[in-house]
């Protein structure tokens, strides 16, 4: 164990994170309606398939597999899984609610009681183990009906449907859930609108226009959710959720530095400025003008956004991003939705994602310097191939090393003066990969016996990292 020289705050929310569409399964049970994740095929082609204009959002089992349909069967095994989280000592469990479990089509006036009751049971189980639920309201699983009949978040009517959905959750769970997040990785919408906004532009020429119009609708919906949360839950805290990746210039050439700076403004700060500062940033005016973007707003939109900013910023951090103004296809690096150029100073994961713990310290300082609100790292982890030994053990020292270095970076940021609320490692139990639909891309402290071809018993096994993270939490980050 490595002893640290810094101190995480008392009451720090150590835990883990998952998403409903990647682990629940039971896609046709409990009155649930179809959602985007239900028509996403397994395999590395999944994002390309659903992003292709003209995709009909139908299931084709002759051509594809659909691992999200079963997930890891959390729907039936939640008690077992939450008990394992509790054994590690989780103070918080970040999870999401499937919108189509509550409103099967998304636009109903009356919610589905069976769906509401399921999450009651999940929250009760968390609270029984003194674990705070941290709940994402919308995490890449928009009801399919809203996509096919309304065109996703391009349609202003969806704001009303989301406000009704969020208000239903606050009223139902006001005595069980204190911490809420509105939209998962909201700033990823420009890069991949299908997952976040529920549509794929017909042409690249309209991608920015349609994406930022959809984002504006989400900004208004988020502010209305903040308003409702504060009115209904007296001690409720509600945050935005961003992908954060500091953007480095490949060298000291001023043109590259300026390009990296401008990319960082648009990607890391535009959504944060709207949701935290309550206004579109000054730099967005020129960006919109130069890219032919005209956002249609209704009277009162800007006032609503200004009046109801979020209480804190939560974000995912997997990697930094290195940029140059002119790059070739061969120079591009793999990444989480976005990609820059390869950084010669960084190693990469099995899936090509560059590993940069220092970038997390930089990100935390940048965000706190800009916004001065509490921060919460709600996703961070290593997707890797795990091997089960003959004796049943899983010795994932590579994951321990990755997490240790990132937790050390967080500790340094706290020492720098950053107000950090908590840390929920991504994929605390193995689940279906969002980007590739694979089970073999494993993140968890808990191994789930399910393979890419759908075989497996779904048996849960504790990895070496399970016991390591238990010690980290018990020592409040002192024993790494």
Structure write-up:
The chain is of the alpha/beta class. It has one domain: Alpha-Beta Barrel (TIM Barrel). It contains 15 helices and twelve strands. The chain has an eight-stranded parallel barrel, surrounded by five helices. α14 links the parallel β9 and β10 (420-426). The longest helix has 26 residues, at 207-232.
TL;DR of this structure?
The protein is α/β, with parallel strands linked by helices and 480 residues long. It has helices at 20-23, 46-51, 74-88, 99-102, 113-128, 144-150, 157-173, 193-197, 207-232, 254-277, 282-290, 301-307, 357-371, 397-416, 464-474, and strands at 13-17, 92-96, 132-138, 179-183, 237-243, 247-249, 312-316, 321-323, 375-379, 420-426, 446-448, 460-462. α9 (207-232) crosses α12.
List keywords for this structure.
480 residues, alpha/beta, TIM Barrel, two-stranded parallel ribbon, globular
Strand percentage, roughly?
5-15%
Q: What is the fourth-level CATH superfamily? A: Glycosidases
Question: Can you tell me the residue ranges where pLDDT is under 50 for at least 5 consecutive residues?
Answer: none
N-to-C SSE string, H for helix and E for strand: EHHHEHHEHHEHHEEHHHEEHEHEEEH
Structural class: alpha/beta
Look at the structure and give the mean pLDDT: 95
The global form is globular
* CATH class assignment: Alpha Beta
Biggest sheet, open or closed, and with what strands and sense? 8 strands, parallel, barrel
Individual helix count: 15
What count of structural domains?
A: 1
List strands and helices in order, with pairings:
Blueprint: E1 13-17, H1 20-23, H2 46-51, H3 74-88, E2 92-96, H4 99-102, H5 113-128, E3 132-138, H6 144-150, H7 157-173, E4 179-183, H8 193-197, H9 207-232, E5 237-243, E6 247-249, H10 254-277, H11 282-290, H12 301-307, E7 312-316, E8 321-323, H13 357-371, E9 375-379, H14 397-416, E10 420-426, E11 446-448, E12 460-462, H15 464-474
Parallel strand pairs: 1-2, 1-10, 2-3, 3-4, 4-5, 5-7, 6-8, 7-9, 9-10
Antiparallel strand pairs: 11-12
Helix pairs in contact: 3-5, 7-9, 9-12, 13-14
């Amino acid at each position: 164990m490595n002893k640290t020289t810094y101190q995480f705050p008392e009451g720090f929310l150590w835990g883990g994170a998952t998403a409903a569409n990647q682990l629940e399964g039971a896609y046709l049970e409990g009155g649930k309606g179809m959602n985007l994740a239900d028509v996403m095929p397994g395999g590395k082609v999944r994002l390309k398939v659903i992003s292709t204009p003209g995709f009909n959002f139908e299931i084709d089992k002759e051509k594809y597999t659909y691992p999200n349909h079963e997930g890891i069967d959390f729907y039936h095994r939640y008690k077992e899984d939450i008990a394992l989280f509790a054994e590690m000592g989780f103070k918080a469990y970040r999870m999401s609610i499937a919108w189509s479990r509550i409103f099967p089509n998304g636009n109903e006036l009356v919610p589905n009681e069976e769906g509401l009751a399921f999450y009651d049971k999940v929250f009760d189980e968390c609270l029984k183990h003194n674990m705070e639920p941290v709940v994402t309201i919308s995490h890449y699983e928009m009801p399919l009906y809203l996509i096919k009949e309304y065109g996703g978040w391009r349609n202003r009517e969806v704001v009303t449907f989301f406000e009704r959905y969020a208000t239903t959750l606050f009223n139902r769970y006001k005595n069980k859930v204190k911490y809420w997040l509105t939209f998962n990785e909201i700033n990823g919408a420009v890069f991949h609108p299908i997952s976040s906004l529920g549509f794929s532009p017909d042409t690249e020429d309209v991608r920015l226009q349609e994406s930022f119009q959809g984002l504006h609708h989400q900004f208004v919906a988020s502010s209305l959710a903040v308003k409702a949360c504060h009115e209904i839950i007296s001690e409720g805290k509600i945050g935005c959720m961003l992908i954060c990746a500091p953007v480095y210039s490949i060298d000291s050439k001023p043109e590259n530095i300026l390009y990296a700076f401008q990319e960082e403004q648009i990607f890391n700060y535009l959504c944060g400025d709207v949701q935290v500062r309550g206004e579109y940033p000054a730099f967005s005016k020129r960006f919109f003008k130069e890219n032919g973007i005209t956002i249609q707003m209704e009277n009162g939109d800007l006032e609503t956004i200004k009046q109801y900013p979020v209480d804190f910023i939560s974000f995912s951090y997997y990697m930094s991003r290195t940029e140059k103004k002119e790059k070739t296809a061969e120079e591009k690096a793999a990444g989480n939705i976005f990609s820059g150029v390869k950084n010669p100073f960084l190693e990469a994961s099995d899936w090509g994602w560059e590993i940069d713990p220092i970038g997390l310290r930089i990100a935390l300082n940048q965000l706190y310097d800009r916004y001065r609100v509490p921060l919460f790292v709600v996703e961070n982890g290593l997707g890797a191939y795990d091997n089960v030994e003959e004796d049943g053990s899983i010795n994932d020292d590579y994951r321990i090393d990755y997490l240790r270095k990132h937790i050390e970076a967080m500790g340094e940021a706290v020492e720098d003066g950053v107000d950090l609320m908590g840390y929920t490692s991504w994929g605390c139990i193995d689940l279906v990969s969002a980007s590739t639909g694979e089970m073999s891309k494993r993140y968890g402290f808990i191994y789930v016996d399910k393979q890419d071809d759908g075989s497996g018993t779904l048996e849960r096994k504790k990895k070496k990292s399970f016991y390591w993270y238990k010690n980290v939490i018990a020592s409040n980050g002192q024993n790494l």
